[in-house]
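not sure who needs this but someone in the group chat was asking about beta-glucosidase from Puccinia coronata f. sp. avenae so here u go. i didnt clean anything up, its just raw.
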Amino acid sequence: MFCYDELNFINTQAASQSEHSRPTAGLWQLDEELIRLKKQISIRYHDTGSDGVVCFSQTTFENQDSENRTLTHPPASSTIQLQLPYIPIPQQPHCRMMAMISCRPGHARLSVLLIIGAFINPPSLASAVASGQDNNATAGLSNFDFQVIPAPPGFEAWTSPVTLPSSIQHGDSPWTHSIERAKKFVAQLTVEEKVNLTTGAGIQGRCVGETGTVPRLGFHQPICLQDGPVGVRFTDFNSVFPAGINAAATFDKVLMFKRAQAMAQEFKGKGVNVMLAPMTNLMRTPESGRAWEGPGADPYMAGVATVQGVLGIQSTRVSACVKHYIANEQEHYRGGSGGKASSSNLDDRTLREVYDWPFAEAIRVDVDYVMCSYNRVNQTHACENSKLINGIVKGEYAFQGVLVTDWAAAVSGVRTTLAGCDMNMPGFMAYGQPSESNPSTANSSYWGLKMIEAVHNGSVPIQRLDDMVTRVMSTYYKQGQDKEDYPKTNMMSFGQGTSEEQARLNKHVNVQADHYKLIREIGAASTVLLKNINHALPLKSPKDIRTIVVIGSDAGDNPRGINSCPDRGCNDGTLAAAWGSGTANFPYLIAPATAIQNYVQQVDPTISYQSIFDDYAYDQIGNASLPADVAIVHVNSDSGEGYITVQDNAGDRNNMSLWHNGDDLILKTAQVCNNTVVVIHSVGPVNMEAWIDHPNVTAVLMAGLPGQESGNSEVDILWGKVNPSARLPYTIAKKRSDYPAELVFNSTMNVPQINYAEQLKIDYRHFDANNIAPRFEYGFGLSYTTFKYSSLKVSKAANAQSHSSPSPQQSMFSAKPSSSASDLYENLITLSFQITNTGRMDGNEVAQLYVAFPREVNEPPKALRGFDRIFLSQKQTKTVSMNLRRKDLSYWDVVTQSWKVPTGKFTLMVGSSSRQIHLQHEQLEL
């Protein structure tokens, strides 16, 4: 094994200090220094005693040029030099050149990064770019002076270090028995059969993803993997549930669990083994195309929602699959199927405290599958990022399940395998294959036949393949999916063909049960009341409301039919689910206009009711709204997955505007009706500044994506059958520029760079840190009643003073992967307080707990660390308790690579939103 002792730069001149050469933010950490001095690299190494090969690889910007040297059986100690060539310098804010030095079999590596552009910007560089005339301009490194600059704490390499080998599965209960069974099964398999169980069989089968089979041993049924997060995709007689963003808006752990459980029951009924949910990525930007599938903008909420999702799904014996690991927060340039795969660049602390948080929580409760994403992370493809998969997921977190690729996210064979991926889905290299020129599915796969060859020639150790198959089979056994009572796959996602074939393959099993009741409940429980002037809602009795007009295309049905657009790739009629692989076919959809009309006719048929679905029929809208006692205007904003473009929105929303003339529709109505109620169906925040303060806009409901019972859920809120209690799982800003991060919509780079420069300050954390007033803050929501908070008490556990920071794996799992009674998750603080319903209606209150860390550790001003939804009758008082775990009070220390409880004074805040704080405990020291 070779260890690298020293890295030097020679044949260069030191640069003088200047304001231009000091970075505004660190990007690379190597021995606590940023390397800015480069022409020739000198590496000194020594051999620790084992024979092997030492490899040196130097790669320029975007892998245009490279120099590789290999020394077989090199001297025990020596120095090698690499001459760096000219670097292409594009006209971009930043360009990078990287030298990577790695070795086998020890896999140690030093890395060096050259940043040119905004952070240095010497005059010679500017003139070189200007003289080049185009993006292919080149300039020799000898033209520039660079220097070594100290790096700020917390920044590491913007390329992930190699971490090998992949950990072998070694779980304790509930994995022990299933792993033993799986090992016995795997021991009987040939290499070809093992590969067959880890390489997807394409997308023309019953499910969107299927493994192969082993008929010789009686394993005839492929393992079926199926979308998606709101219901069973590509089938019939299923339900469509409220979206993940709605589940988060409930702030109700019980409803989160029940939603996941009911969905999984339908997956099980269809014979699905792996439900490709929950979606766990955060709403880093408000336009993010798939954020509606997930838990919103806060990592703690994401952790809770993900845990409840995993527990709910796996309570039915269906395997859950959390996705997409990791930093997959936009659709533009996410990669996949030959598209540009951007690099999400983030520092170690941001990764751990924000984006990795919910995945770690899912692994702690024994999730069966983790899906790696299309994008790169710190320049390395997520599915071949061994630092993330081998180092963190399987190493530190001791994940015992299956690491599966997103569909066609694998861009290599051996690298992806050695990085820790266990299953390649759907098996081929890219969508559209096999083609006429390459008809063989097996030949078009990075795995399949290529994997068999790699095992036989030693590129992939047989132990790695054995572990992959063992993981696949142990999850199968763990859930008891081999038992007779587990349904066989009875649906057909693709190629139903003739009616005879359809009858044979698709049994049309009705799995809906009475889930419509839960869907209606969650739809109402996730509807956020944003504005309610003079108690406009709930609507008064029929004797006071005699004339109702319902306005907007979003209130009505899709004139072409509810499932007329594949994967919901259109925006016609009411919006109850967005588009992409995360959607499902509706069995029916109750539009708001239908539900309102039905309710009115049942209550009092003499009430005048009218609906107008033309968003531009201003004269008709004016004539109808003028005499109306209430005008209910429906508007929406849609998004989805990037393989579908809807109204010029390629997955991500182009902006935060309402669709279909929404702003004008509201204003035209409000001009003539002094009781205008606005209902918004949206995937996320919208810009409402044009009309939100209009005095005739008396009430605003943010209904999100409520699923098939949309209209009925709305009626329950409008007439007060349900008292609204939902809260925003994101911030609604007054203007787009108030948000901390931008989507990368356009890039000429081969690898578009998405820099998570906001670091920990996502969403409300940024607004708080910069004292920006939002329109509606994170956690905001009104009720038809009022509540009073009192009597805050705080107590510390006996071990709260301990600041020990064990290694991540020990702290998370106490050396046993499935142990939940670990140091990191023990309770350190218990809070109790009282809430009283002081109003005239029964209702639920959502209490939220925020923590302010000691200033010395540079955390955001406050972070969500607890919540609870409490039902209170009129005048009733209840005592609420919340616990803070060690992890909730810790920050990620990049030096020790562990969670640490900081010294200093904490502040605990209890309120009804991130800015409406009712109780506070200051000066808490641990």
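also The longest helix spans residues 253-269. if thats useful
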